[in-house]
Write a structure and sequence with these properties.
202 residues, alpha/beta, Rossmann fold, 5-stranded parallel β-sheet, binds adenosine-5'-triphosphate
Length: 202
């Protein structure tokens, strides 16, 4: 059974920067966002069920899911959102689980913006939170995505609060300095995880 570290953090906190470094260290990284896209690819049963339920207007011309359109529909309708979540959450979970079980590194990272909110922390032995002060989070996300401060603030407000996330953390990486410091911090925590994964086998 692979030792699973759940990695989470708010928008623009540095999850990708952190998980890229773990991957460079040879650790298997499973991305919940990627899994969420895989389960609705053309040919997957979930896509047919979504089209049956919402109609062909949620498809793009090439037959793939129009994710923006679907988001609009469920954003405006709580019951539809619940319907969609109850269809997709178990499938996403299965996809994550099978990717994690195929890991042949000493431990695996599950990176997810909604790790705690979606209950994915249940399969993790350890929770690692990337934490940044909100002003840094705002500035980095705006620089990366060319979004307005209002748009980024709205996204931040829709996620778990910084305190709520930190309350679930076993380990925290404070990403308020440069990328070199971040790399060093990941390398340090990697050694702790190697040791913990080894202990968990005994
Ligand atoms: P999202 O939830 O939106 O996917 P994320 O948590 O994966 O975001 P990243 O994309 O890793 O966050 O980081 C956000 C931006 O900030 C990126 O442009 C990244 O290069 C930059 N960044 C991350 N950490 C640092 C740092 N320590 N110093 C400078 N820039 C950083």
């Amino acid at each position: 059974m692979v030792f699973i570290v759940g990695l989470t953090g708010g928008i623009g906190s540095g999850k990708t920067a952190v998980s890229d470094r773990f991957a460079k260290l040879g650790i298997k990284v499973v991305d919940a966002d990627v899994c969420a896209r895989v389960v609705v690819e053309p040919g997957r049963p979930a896509l047919a069920q979504i089209v049956d339920h919402f109609g062909p207007e949620v498809l793009q011309a090439d037959g793939s899911l129009d994710r923006a359109r679907l988001r609009q529909i469920v954003f405006a309708n709580e019951a539809e959102r619940k319907w969609l979540e109850s269809l997709l959450h178990p499938l996403i979970f299965e996809e994550m689980w099978s990717q994690l079980q195929s890991a042949n590194s000493p431990y695996a990272i599950l990176v997810s913006p909604l790790l705690v909110e979606a209950g994915q922390n249940a399969i993790c032995q350890r929770i690692l939170v990337v934490d940044v002060p909100e002003d840094v989070q705002l500035a980095r996300t705006m620089a990366r995505d060319a979004n307005s401060a209002e748009q980024v603030k709205a996204m931040m407000a829709s996620q778990a609060s910084r305190d709520a996330r930190l309350a679930k953390a076993d380990d925290v990486i404070v990403n308020d300095s440069d990328l070199l410091m971040l790399k060093q911090r990941v390398d340090e925590i990697h050694h702790q995880y190697l040791a913990l994964a080894e202990i968990s086998k005994q």
